[in-house]
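re: ur question from earlier - yeah i can do the single chain one, its not a big deal. heres the input i used so u can compare w yours
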Amino acid sequence: MSEWAVEIDNLVRSFGAFVAVDHVSLKVPKGEIFGFLGPNGAGKSTTIRVLCGLLSPTSGRALVNGYDVASDPEAVKRSIGYMSQKFSLYDDLTVEENIDFFTGMYGVPKERRQERKDYVLGMANLMERRDSPAGTLSGGWKQRLALGCAILHDPPVVFLDEPTSGVDPIARATFWDLIGELSRTGHTVFVTTHYMDEAEYCHRLALMYGGKVIALGAPGELKRDLTEHNLLRLETAAALDTMRAIEREEGILEVAVFGSGLHVVVDNADAAMGRIRKSLAAQGIEIRRLEQIQPSLEDVFVALIEAEERKAA
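and the output i got, formated as tokens:
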């Protein structure tokens, strides 16, 4: 029995001349919360469609729960749960009727259906809403119901594709509590998200760009990689003029707009701050804030993608 829930080896998926997934290799152990990050068009959704048995690989190999996605896609589909940001619920049916429908769709044995229904209602805290039409639920409650329906057949691997998009922060936090509980009970959760705070909840992350995995590791590891350099927070009244003034200075490695200011990656913090002050004074640009800070995952994300874009250029 393999220790891996998902195994990908040199996976390629092309659409004509366009390569959407470009020789991706990674392994996800059982029970892990694995995050998939990347900008639109990076190849995340295409990779997930291959892993769910919805698309065949152009080349390479992918196994999910030990099943080959190319030769046995139906076995893959039966052994996974899948939830997208659209939730795939029937608004005219009640909470309980949606659950009953999906127990049939997923082929839950009749003798287990009541047990699984009770589990989902309890897990999602929907017992008091079991008679409410799904269409009347708020986004957060719909989200819980959709997750419950996706795991009715108790799949060992659950794919969640942007599951918290458009949901308020409190509902997102509650949802991640449910994801954590799934992981603790031995389920593997493969999740895509564009919220950097959510990425911190993942045991490991893969960052995709241009169809390739350009970084792979635990959130703390990825941030430590960036601390080989130093990160400065710089705020002025003219961010773009400031960027142009300092980006060619010696020792300035990266400059990126970040909120209302700039994040500047430098090789030596004290020397770089001196050069920045001198350069901006010469341009008549007043500094409102300049200090060294600890990098966030978003800083890692921006720095890695900018490095890839420079390579491409």
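The first strand starts at residue 4 and ends at 15. not sure if urs matches, ping me
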